[in-house]
User: Fold this.
Amino acid sequence: MKRTNSHLYIIIAFVIAQIAWLGLLALWIYWYVTNYIVFEQVGEKLSPLIDIQTPNVFVFTAGIILIVGIAVVMFIFFRNLSVQYKLTNLYDNFIATVTHELKSPLSSLRLFLETMAYKNVSEEKRKDFLSLMMKDVKRLDNLINTILEISKLEQKKIVHDRREYKAGILFEELVNESILNLSVPEGVVSYECSSVSYCSADKKALQIVIDNLISNALKYSKEAPTINVSVKDNRKKIIIDISDNGIGIPQQYQKKIFNKFFRIDSVNMPNVKGTGLGLYWTKEIIKQHKGSISVHSNGLNKGSTFRIELPALKNKG
Assistant:
């Protein structure tokens, strides 16, 4: 209710500002026309030699500057209002999504616990229940940790443990660790490397990046997923490409998907859940490494390639 009232106040303020602007414009036009007539009449009576154009030009120029200034202010105001409105909607969607993501495993845990408490459950069934409960607990833990870590990252409370690594060896280890973390079937992920450069990196932070990207590639694949990770050198940069054969990303969303809370509501994958934080977190970690991340996709069902660019260390390799 408070949020709705806040929106209403902003809209009312904007409408009042528009009315004030139009009123001021009308007054200026009235003042200009009135004074122009007065100047003209006085000039005709006093002397035909009086140059009445100078004050009129000055008044006209001042009025134009005033109108342009007001228009610029109103444009900035309207743009900020639009951005704030979009952020509010994204925040509301995020709250709704997180609430669902928290409630779903909690409901599942409650159901399993009640079943085990009030019914005779075989030992085999009990083990199955415990296994499922552990998955739900892990899911909750991952969600809460993600939110906390992003908060720390934004507040610059995280101190990265930077060390020098040979890029090819580092990313091979990260990919292999992701395969274990995500229980990826054998043969789904391939790795190739031609890089001989070194980089300064926080291995744990980059593990989060690779986990997120490979996890997304798995989630957004309709058919048997195929993921390729390649590492190569390009002048003073190390290029890491993570390509998949998934559902692809429409052109209009390719820059937005790294925004906080942003999610694509895909009819092709309606059961895929998320908070819109994973790629934002990924981007922030890469920025901390003085690198960049981008995505390219030729469209629907044509896969995607996420490209990470990291600076190579000088006099290395």
In short: The two ends are 60 Å apart (CA to CA). The chain has a mean pLDDT of 79.
